[in-house]
Structures
1.
Amino acid sequence: MKNELSIAFIGGGNMAAALASGLAGKVCPAGNIHVIDINEEAHASWRARGMTTATAADEALARCRVWVFAVKPQNMKDVVASTRQWLRPDTLVVSVAAGIRADTLAGWLGTPEQPFRRLVRCMPNTPALVGAGMTGLAALDGVGQEDRELAASLLASVGDVVWVADDAALDGVTALSGSGPAYVFLFLEALIAGGQKVGLTAEQARQLALGTLAGATKLAAESSEPPSVLRERVTSKGGTTAAALASFGAAGFAGIVEDALAAAARRSRELAEEFGK
């Protein structure tokens, strides 16, 4: 833990709360975390954990080594403008806001002629709320190795992290892991509904579906073999698994997943154009 590290969360929603909970007492003391949130009713829960709060950007920002922007993308431009007077050259800016390109945010923090490039853009996902998140990160060229390690440690407090090259790659991260939990939940819904149709109770189907998905994912994560080999080992010629996989194949399952990710990545690019104006 770095006792001298101070962090500001600009926006105090669910993702900020998850990150702050992961950081407090591990990466830095809770008292070194400052939260800016317009919802004053939410401040009590932050203060109960030993953190300081404000309803608007204030001078405390100047004392914070790291700023984490966690506001809705449609509000980001105005929020950034309200903070700029306290930005210092050695501030590390971390954005977890969806849909705002790193270069766009750099221009808002600085100027179009002199953008602020000590900036890391991140795309976490909702399992971060239970400490099992997956986050993609991309850094601008003003971020040194020490800052990269610091940014990674912040997001690693709520799960695993993967560095990617740039905003274009983050569109892929958004499509796969950012939106991915929704795909998993949809598959779980279908498994549970299908289980009931073949004779299980709702609770039996839910328990079996959740356990099977968790166990298969754990096996894939800990195995040195690719998922294709693991799948083949479950599949006996002419057996029950082969019948199910044939049905998936006939429906074009792999193509459906590929098309879904392509649609999500395309929408990510469109939102960046919309919110970056």
Note: The chain has a mean pLDDT of 95.
2.
Amino acid sequence: MTVRVGVIGAGIMGSDHAAIADGRISGATVTAVADLDAARAASVAGGLRNARVAESPLELIAAEDVDAVVVASADASHAEFTLAAIAAGKPVLCEKPLAPDVASCDAIVAADDRARERFGRGLVSVGFMRRFDPAYVSLKRAIAEQSIGRTVLLNCESRGVTSAPGTTSEGAVTGSTIHELDIVPWLLDSPVVEVRWDAPDSAVEGLLDPQVVTLRTASGVLAVVETFLNARYGYDIRCEAVGTTGTAAIHTTDDARLTTTGDLRRAESYGADWRRRFAEAYRIEVQAWVDSLRDERPSPLADARAGRAATVLAQAVIDSMHERRSVDVPR
């Protein structure tokens, strides 16, 4: 069985997902691409083996030549297209965030629960690709096996070259920090129960940048998350677990991997964006999604409830930003 995939969104993420699904994994082909910019959709479709340009995202979702849908359009449109895919009974891989607001996530979770009753499994997967990055997988194993003792602190740094035009302080949370809001509880296998946002006295065209968020988990671990969209020097991702007997860390290098105390290396080069650093994670993620569809089993990706949980945390961080206080997270 070959899974026929339709891709909504022909920007950086959509074009990357289309290329991965159409030629870098097995068991899938891209049959349709949709974008508000028809010329951009045509450009992406033209680089694939046998893809057409859909008249609209909704036409793509309803099309008989599409078995599953990738939603990689603007964040604000994720809920509409994900709900439409669920209504059509088609599996959907929605890029993060599942939706930028909790109410929309609630609607998706409810619809996916109904789909689970009908099909025996949920239809929604959320593109938190770091769960498939080999270095993060190794770090999660090190934490679980307590090879560094009991983890007490997590330091996460996410830096980019420059922010997208029009990025707001709130958008930095829902569009970038949300990766850490998903990966921290995943790494520690413990939900976040309290958040606090802060930032130095700096701004880039109204954007508070960098931002620092402190997360406290139910297990008592503190995670300090730095998001710096305009770091200029390059795309740089780091994550260090501090344990009672040692440390384990991920640093951005050309062969990003997990390092432990005594084996730390200096990162000598940085890419312009995330694509080189997480290329393998995206490939593994999409292959895992397609394999689950072919085998008719639950997706191993983050599900709708995990997507909602990350958005709940993002809203708590934004509340902390506005109110300048710690915010408890509803369980």
Note: Confidence is low (pLDDT under 50) at residues 262-268.
3.
Amino acid sequence: MRSLWLVVLLGAALCGCRRSDEPAGAAPSKDDAEKSGAKISKRTEFEPQEDPVIRVREKYNAAEQITDPEERTKALEAVAWDALELDPDLSLEAVNQLAAGSDGSRRLIGHMAMRLADEDAEQALQWVRALEDPAERSDAIGRVTVVMANEDPRRAADLAVNEMAEGRAKDKAVVQIVQRWVQIEPAEAAAWIILYPDTNVRTDGVRSMLDIWLSKDSASAGSWVGNLAPGPVRDHTLETAEELLHGRLADRAPAFVGALNDPELQTQFQSLRNAK
């Protein structure tokens, strides 16, 4: 179910979207208008403007009358996006008219989930868990965990692993969580991702983690790699680090190699470099 409390929370999340230095309804000054070539007249200054909320609701009413299924879906999706900030209640109403699990519904629900998570991650998680369509629910949980990773990356990672269905959405969420985690707790993020199942997700996650860590503190990254147990994981991690340090992060290589603190590992790193 798509709970109605979403409307209240979404409205609160959106209320601060307008820049404080741009008051609602402020018209451009005469100088600004003249610079842009606009014409000012007494008639247009006082001419009433159509309420955008009324306009988007009229679009919704028109969309409901469309008989062609494909065209009706497109019109409802457009209304849902247009109403997201103007009228969250109407936006949710339009989403409810879409087929659950459809691409359009999943994109809109995912966007709503992220906006809600910015305001209150726990309530957003409660809402997305109640979604009936499995694909829609999994994708929305992923959006919430990525936002949550900015404050509590370990919990976000556990939620992604345990509550998301296998697939592209989960893979993407895991890598994005690691990217945020490494900026807060690099050693913890690194220790978590190297234990992830041996898949492309781990490969991508390790590379993303090292890219960020090496750019911020290559010495501590080198110390961490130097303390890994010998084996395929350490070999792959060292190889990935060398690839990154061979390119745009080349100036970070001396600090990384010095921090490896293991002559054998330093020799292995140099061998990888010489093989280029």
Note: Residues 53 and 208 are 43 Å apart (CA to CA).
4.
Amino acid sequence: MINFYDKAMNPLEPIEFIEITWNRKWNEAGDFTIYTTASEWNDKIKYVNIDGRPETGIVKKTVIEEKIEGTFVTVKGYFLEKLLDLVQAREDSNAFAKAADHTEWEFWVSLEIDAHVLANNVIGVTHQPRPSFLGGIHPADGSPWPDEVDLSIKQGDNIGEALRNYLLLHNMSPIIEIRKWPLASELDKWLMNPDEPHFTYLIGPKVGRDLSDKIIFGKGYENVSRVEYQYDDSDAFPYYQIIQTMETTGFSNEAIITDEGGNSRGRITEFYIDENNRPIDVDYYPKKVIEGNVSGIELKPANEAQIREQMRQQAKVDMLNHYRQETIVADIIQNNIYYLHDYDIGDLCSISFDEIEQTFKARIVEVNETYSKNRLELKITFGTPRKAKYIPVSI
């Protein structure tokens, strides 16, 4: 069931719609579109969600169009995860730790995310007259987090991109839940704007599962009507060289350089290679050289291991934006396996191409749902497929 709410998250009566598309995405914030008649549309609608889903949509654009058949309304918006993309870091921050070093890991890491990523940058109650987001964004209690924190954020960085890239490395994606009331410690901040709706946004990672041995899509399995494969490695870099320059010297395998003032400085180099990102059927490795932006730790020889690890992490994150583009798009028939019951966005599944006798393993990175006339049409996009053993279907 599709639910509608006003700006204060009060439930509104459902409307009759011609079509709704609900586009969930793993690598970025999703979006939605509502198409209905002007007589059905309620301009008090500000938030939309679907029963049993973690995401909530916020209305951002309304277009009213007169046609021969009547007057129609098209409404577009995005999911709340987009809020993280609207904020830039106000200051440098770093958080590095491993689960083995902390007994209550999920509780501890949620505090780190709150302190290093969100509190100083997204909320900012001590840095400006009012918070960036009324009620603020905080880690949700009990949410799973990766078993390693490795976040380096520089002033001006996009908070959403930094957090999402960190989670994607661990097969996770951020989900934001909206709460109607702010945290008690911040209540005094809302008194100056009593007429505005005030919310707390809670963020928690969604974990992708490996279902590749259980969930197989293919025409032979009678659960797809169309399958399309796309490949593009024109912007892929499998080989990174990271160069970091420090004011001090004494690092291992360093180059000594002299600045304009005649002072000696140390320069170290790290490399990061991902064979899976190599362009197909060529005998070269496109190389990208980047300048290290290590921050938040003292750049001295005693911290060399941490400096080099942060350099490699920077290369991993940059490679996410320069990875070879392999996608499989399938129109789904809900016949023997069912969306949300058997599989969900973020899960690793198998896709069988009977015509070419190939099977791929790939993660569901986008689910496009279209609701119209009591029908649901599903289109699923799988990203970065990997070849697997072909599984023929016996009929």
Note: The chain is about 15% helix and 40% strand.
